[in-house]
């Protein structure tokens, strides 16, 4: 989750396609040890669609989840 949170913060700051190096730097700057392998996998999965589309689809799935 920490990798995704860093990616989303970079995206919210105006970076449409954050790189592995940028996510790693952000995490290191706040004192978190990043995992390059996990970040690479995450970025590959996130480049399939725009971030706002993925968030919207996730929100729809979350809304249909049983309580």
From TrEMBL:
The keyword Nuclease does not apply. GO terms for cellular component: ribonucleoprotein complex; ribosome. Residues 1-21 form the signal peptide. Coiled coil: none annotated. Keywords: Ribonucleoprotein, Ribosomal protein, Signal. Belongs to the eukaryotic ribosomal protein P1/P2 family. This is 60S acidic ribosomal protein P2. It comes from Halteria grandinella.
